[in-house]
Amino acid sequence: MTQVPTPTADIVRRLVRSLLAGGAVGTGGPDVRPADVGGEHSTWWVGSRHVLRLAPDRETSARLRREPRLRDLVRPHVGVAVPAGVAHGEWADGLAYTLDTRLPGGSAEEHDVSAVGEADLAALLTGLREVPVRQAETLGVPRVGPRSLEALRRAAEGAAERLAAADEFDPARLHQLTPSATAQLAAQAGTAVLVHHDLKGEHLVVSPDGRVRGVLDWTHAVVGDPAEDIAGLALAVGSPAAVRAATLAGYAARPCLRGLWLARCDTVVRLAGSLAGRDAGPPPLLRVQLRRAWEAILLERVTELREEDEEG
């Protein structure tokens, strides 16, 4: 098996110099530096205006090659910016790269999303629902069936007990999600839409005033359960903001609550896996995501107040 080369600053600089020839870079070569973001592709900042992503394997390469056409498809619908491609090709044998424009702003890990920013997220969810599914599938976007919330609940129960032993989580919090509730929150037939499927904080471009200015990394997009994007937003901006945005986008209680519980169970399972060395996610970020996902939404807060009044 051919060994995949490790991207270095020199490799990146030579590649970018060839792509931005003609005065776009200085005589000493472009300023390149690794981006401190996760993901399965190596990401590099190129100056202040570009981002270079290098796929490490052929599977990721296929998704990276598909992404520019998918972004062109979603751009007119989603109401927020998506990166524009500058160049694409192969940086090693069979391994793809994309050079994109850099969208101005920070991430949802750096800036809080404002009320107006929640409206931006609602426009994103609304637009994704409007993207023609057949056109997305023609581009190679896979159709993925909805996950079993009951199976995820059972996995979360075991993970919660392990977290309780480490004094990380109270497993009683999962008692709200009963088997009958998971049955009620099963995904409904005929509701599949284009789903970004990776709406974590680092993929949301947020301005200092809290507006959501763009969405990055469309390589994981699928045609599937819209609750997955609601779940992603719960991890990125908190459950109350995610549910408010989804409600503004026209989603009813069922997909909102389904997304909420997908996020909550996922965070419990992933943090337990990370502490056991089975998940690559860093525990500090996973703890933040767990806290965001388990923030009470308005309906739960009203219920808590009723219970307190009855006890009083």
Would you mind describing this structure in some detail?
The longest helix is centred in the last third of the chain and has 23 residues, at 253-275. The protein is globular. It contains 11 helices and 10 strands. The N and C termini lie far apart (69 Å). 41% of the residues are buried. Strands 1-2-3-5-4 form a 5-stranded antiparallel β-sheet, sandwiched between helices. It has a 3-stranded antiparallel β-sheet with strand order 6-8-9. The chain has 312 residues and is α+β, with helices and mostly antiparallel strands. Strand 1 (32-34) and strand 2 (42-46) form a beta hairpin. The model is unreliable at 302-309 (pLDDT under 50). Helix 7 (227-237) packs across helix 8 and helix 8 (239-248) packs antiparallel against helix 9 (253-275). It has helices at residues 9-19, 58-78, 115-130, 133-138, 149-165, 179-184, 227-237, 239-248, 253-275, 283-293, 298-311; strands at 32-34, 42-46, 50-54, 85-92, 95-101, 106-107, 193-195, 204-206, 212-215, 222-224.
The ordered string of helix (H) and strand (E) elements is HEEEHEEEHHHHEEEEHHHHH
Spatially, the strands of the biggest sheet line up as 1-2-3-5-4
Using DSSP, what is the number of strands?
Answer: 10
The major beta sheet can be summarized as: 5 strands, antiparallel
Query: Spans of 5+ residues with little confidence (pLDDT < 50)?
Result: 302-309
Please give the share of residues in helix: 40-55%
Report the structural category. alpha+beta
Beta-strand residue percentage: 5-15%
Radius of gyration: 21 Å
- What shape does the CA trace take? globular
Please report the distance between the alpha carbons of the first and last residues. Answer: 69 Å
